[in-house]
Amino acid sequence: MRDQAPGLMRQQLLVDQNVQGSLLQRTALYCAASVTYFFVILIFREWISSPAGSFYDAVFSSLGESTYWVPGFILLIPIVSYDLLKLTNRFAGPFFRLRREMQRLARDESEMSLRFREGDFWVEIADDFNSVREELIRLRKFHAEHSQTPKHPAFRQDQASKFNESNQARTRSASL
Asked: How far is residue 32 CA from its own chain's centroid?
């Protein structure tokens, strides 16, 4: 991944649908549970405060009172959802980028070190990943330079196996 300037904002609000979608569903569940709780409390308060009235009277009276707080609650839902997505972006985004960089590194396509955006969580993981990345690149380069298989274009695979067998035989005889 290319380095990005600090403070650069993410263009995508929903980065990891599995993680962020699950958190949004859980938030919706909590909101529904809160509305149910407040409504039940209103019903019982009405029912207890006027013992002469029926339970249905308490329900209808509570519905009338809920018109004061339900619209505000409905207005808060998109605000809370947006804020939750922005917050989860701070950890879902870095792990999305880390996963993508690990895939690139495995394919030997990693060009630049990984940096997270300002305000992201777990910035130190990028430093740890970059250390592992540099070590892997160094080991790959070392292995390529010190590989025992000749890189001659006329060298065929069947010759490589004979070459390796003769090297192993020499190593065994030298160790005896």
From this structure: 26
pTM for the model stands at: 0.58
Quote the CA–CA distance of 100 and 93 in Å, as a whole number.
11
- Domain regions of the chain by residue span: 17-145, 147-176
Query: Nearest Cα to 108, choosing from 72, 142, 77, 133?
Result: 133
> What are the φ/ψ torsions at residue 143 (nearest 5 degrees)?
-65, -40
> Of 89, 92, 91, 111, which Cα lies nearest the Cα of 101?
111
- Local confidence pLDDT in tens for the 176 residues of the chain: 344 444 555 567 778 888 888 888 998 898 889 888 988 888 888 888 887 878 888 888 888 888 888 888 888 888 988 898 888 888 888 998 999 999 999 999 988 899 998 889 888 999 999 999 999 999 999 998 888 765 544 444 555 555 556 555 555 554 45
The total of other beta-carbon atoms located within 10 Å of residue 159's CB is: 13
